[in-house]
Write a structure and sequence with these properties.
Length: about 375
């Protein structure tokens, strides 16, 4: 008598077998100041989904070796993303291991798109060689104003004030990163061009949604059609759509990005450690729960424009904050404030972006409990 065919594995169901704390940790990206890789060991051993380099110090020449030792400590072989903002111009976190490249606006003004793709591919290969797997770039915001500064977060970070050119050059940059095996992240959805302030220093509004639909949003529509793998959501609120910061709003993440634009890739927040978020007001752990509930898959914290409060980036403080956010997510699931299915969907999306198949046995480890396991 023939046996029935095996039941196909559902990735979300496989993820549900992980301990709840492991699932929560997989959604967080912890900041690492000035390449203090060893200081991130605690969150990595706890299963953090990623680390993000911040600061202005040059990268050590043995960064790849240090990262290899760090990610080897990740549970069940699920390595964290290693992220950096390597946009060009004044936003390059990997000096010392990655070649300098011009500001985005300068690239668009002086190079054809193919040259921008080649430039990004070269930078991406150097990132890859150093163990960095994700570039928080390109900026797809359409902005032609001065900046970046405390009023305008974009300025020279934008390829152009014309959304079509911003998309053309931004996607050329993203394609170059893909050629080098680095994950590109389009930002800052739904578009910060024309924003009335910098969300790092105070709450800010984007242009009204009706204006965005015929302007800045079109660059992100083009990116979704082109298959961009990841999108970062802004912390500005969107007049006519939501009074919440976009990163905490289901109207932005689920309704606009997912349903209307049809995006199926990885969604992450901009840093939630900003005045725009703290003014909601909500503790950082509650803001993370709100973001995940709104449809976000990964949460960033600790990054600001100036890194003025260095105490928040000390390894002990980062690990404490990481633990508080993990606990907040776990408590939200237990209290049903955050649906467990939403948590599992976010973890599944994060793993898919890493190329990890939870049905192949990665993640849970021996003795992993179900939904009630801490």
């Amino acid at each position: 008598m023939s046996r029935p065919p095996p039941t196909a594995c559902d990735p979300a169901r496989a993820v549900a077998s992980w301990p709840l704390t492991r699932r929560a940790a997989q959604l967080l990206v912890v900041p690492v100041a000035d390449f203090d890789v060893a200081g991130a060991a605690g969150p990595v051993r706890a299963g953090t989904g990623g680390i993000l380099f911040l600061g202005t110090a040059p990268a050590p020449t043995d960064l790849g070796k240090r990262l290899s030792s760090l990610v080897a400590q990740a549970p069940a072989g699920v390595a964290p993303f290693v992220m950096a903002d390597e946009e060009g111009g004044g936003v390059q976190r990997l000096s010392g291991v990655v070649q300098p490249i011009p500001w985005a606006r300068q690239m668009a003004a002086s190079m054809p798109p193919d040259a921008v793709r080649a430039l990004a591919a070269g930078a991406g290969r150097q990132m890859n060689a150093a163990g960095v797997t994700v570039d928080l770039a390109p900026v797809l915001d359409a902005d032609a104003r001065p900046g970046p500064n405390l009023v305008n977060p974009d300025g020279l970070r934008s390829f152009s004030g014309d959304p079509e050119l911003a998309a053309l050059y931004g996607l050329a940059f993203a394609t170059g990163l893909r050629d080098a095996g680095v994950l590109a992240v389009a930002k800052h959805f739904p578009g910060l061009g024309g924003v009335d302030a910098n969300t790092d220093v105070r709450p800010a509004a984007t242009l009204p949604i009706t204006t965005l639909r015929s302007g800045g949003l079109t660059a992100f529509q083009a990116a979704v059609r082109a298959g961009i793998p990841a999108v970062m959501v802004a912390n500005a609120w969107v007049p006519g759509l939501t009074r919440l910061p976009a990163s905490l709003s289901s109207a932005v993440v689920t309704d606009l990005l997912r349903r209307e634009l049809g995006f199926t890739g990885l969604v992450m927040t901009d840093s939630l450690s900003t005045t725009a978020i703290s003014s909601v007001p909500a503790p950082l752990s509650s803001a993370a729960v709100m973001a995940i509930g709104a449809g976000v898959d990964m949460v960033l914290f600790g990054s600001t424009l100036t890194l003025a409060d260095r105490a928040q980036l000390a390894p002990g403080e980062v690990e404490r904050t990481f633990g508080e956010i993990v606990d907040g997510i776990v408590q939200a699931v237990w209290s049903k404030t955050l649906p467990e299915a939403r948590l599992n969907a976010a973890v599944t999306a994060a793993l898919a972006a890493k190329g990890v198949d939870p049905c192949a046995g990665g993640g849970g480890g021996a003795g992993a409990g179900g939904s009630g396991a801490p």
